[in-house]
Amino acid sequence: MNIKNSTAIVTGGSLGIGKATAKLLIDNGAKVIITGRNKERLELAASEIGAIACHIDITDYNNFKPTIKELISKHGKIDILINNAGIGAFGELGDLTIDQFESVFNTNVFGLALFTQELLPHFKERKSGNIVNIASTAALKGFAHGTVYSASKFALRGMTQCWQAELRKHNIRVMLINPSEVTTAFANAERKERAEVDNKLRSVEIAHSIKSALEMDDRGFIPELTVWATNPF
Ligand SMILES: NC(=O)c1ccc[n+]([C@@H]2O[C@H](COP(=O)([O-])OP(=O)(O)OC[C@H]3O[C@@H](n4cnc5c(N)ncnc54)[C@H](OP(=O)(O)O)[C@@H]3O)[C@@H](O)[C@H]2O)c1
After folding, report:
1. In angstroms, how far is CA 72 from the centroid of its own chain?
2. How many H-runs (helices) and E-runs (strands) does the chain carry?
3. Calculated CA dihedral for residues 140, 169, 31, 179, nearest 10 degrees
4. Ligand 1: residues within 6 Å at CB?
5. Residue 214, domain member (yes or no)
6. Cα of 90 from ligand 1 centre, angstroms
7. Which protein residue has the closest C-alpha to ligand 1 atom 20?
8. For 53-110, how does the pLDDT look when each residue is reduced to its tens digit (9 = 90+)?
């Protein structure tokens, strides 16, 4: 697809991977709507990168339907949905709480799926659409203290495969991106971005991977793409 003149929604576009991806798409001629929970941070990011701010918390699934409808009618078309908003909770089996499971699954699985579902009639009607789900290498392999997060990303990987099976016949491309560690504000309660480190991935590397995957001619798509740092040790 051509990024130029396309319209994209990036959930969680106010920080980190989402913000870098929104910026790269905008720099390449797309109109980009970003969402986030913190309104002030969202509006600041939007004005910084030239995006359109839309204050949607993806866990607010009983209320976001009219806002998504409004977005579609206002902008005429949506070509790309980047399901990037995600959170983590970490702890060892023995110390886990239902709150950790509920908050992480509400965002990374339930909210993500129900948000996507609201855009589906639009994609099906147009017989085109691009859904990019941001999972993680935690979707491929479990690790100590990763029960809640890894389970949510395994679930996202499973849902992605189901949507690929359901949506190919509608010319809707569904892609999964699995970044390894990226120096962002992820899992930081103060929401402060981590300093760049030479041997770890930055948000911009993930943004480039997403853009490259999208740019393939519409006759094909990359079902799953994993991104590793070359030498993180
Ligand atoms: N950083 C890593 O090492 C890494 C590695 C692999 C995969 N990932 C995945 O990449 C995605 C982005 O991570 P990141 O590192 O860029 O995280 P981040 O820096 O914490 O940014 C997350 C973004 O999502 C928004 N957000 C969180 N919950 C939301 C909700 N319920 N509704 C709407 N927006 C919400 C945040 O804004 P507000 O806080 O204002 O809502 C922020 O804009 C996540 O899905 C994460 O699991 C990250």
Report:
1. 19
2. 7, 7
3. 10
4. 11-18, 35-38, 41, 57-59, 84-87, 107, 111, 134, 136, 179, 181-182, 184-186, 191
5. yes
6. 15
7. 186
8. 999 999 999 999 999 999 999 999 999 999 999 999 999 999 999 999 999 999 999 9
The answer to whether position 58 is within a domain reads yes
Q: Which atom of ligand 1 is nearest to the CA of 41?
A: 40
- For ligand 1, the distance from its centroid to the CA atom of residue 191, given in whole angstroms, is 10
Question: In angstroms, what is the span from residue 169 Cα to ligand 1's centroid?
Answer: 31
We report the CATH number of the domain holding residue 205 as 3.40.50.720
Domain coverage including residue 94:
7-227
Question: Could you confirm whether 61 is annotated as catalytic?
Answer: no
Eight-state DSSP code of residue 13: -
Number of domains in the chain: 1
Block residue for tokens 């905008």: 26
Quick: pLDDT tens for 157-186.
999 999 999 999 999 999 999 999 999 999
Identify whether 2 is part of a domain. Answer: no
Burial label, 190 (beta-carbon count in 10 A; 0-12, 13-18, 19+): exposed
Residue 89 domain-assigned (yes or no):
yes
For residues 55-87, b (16+ Cβ closer than 10 Å) or e, as one string? ebbbbbbeebeeebeebbeeeeebbbbbbbbbb
Contact in structure between 88 and 109 (CB atoms under 8 Å): no
d(CA 56, CA 12) in angstroms, rounded, equals: 9
| Residue type at 219 in one-letter notation | R
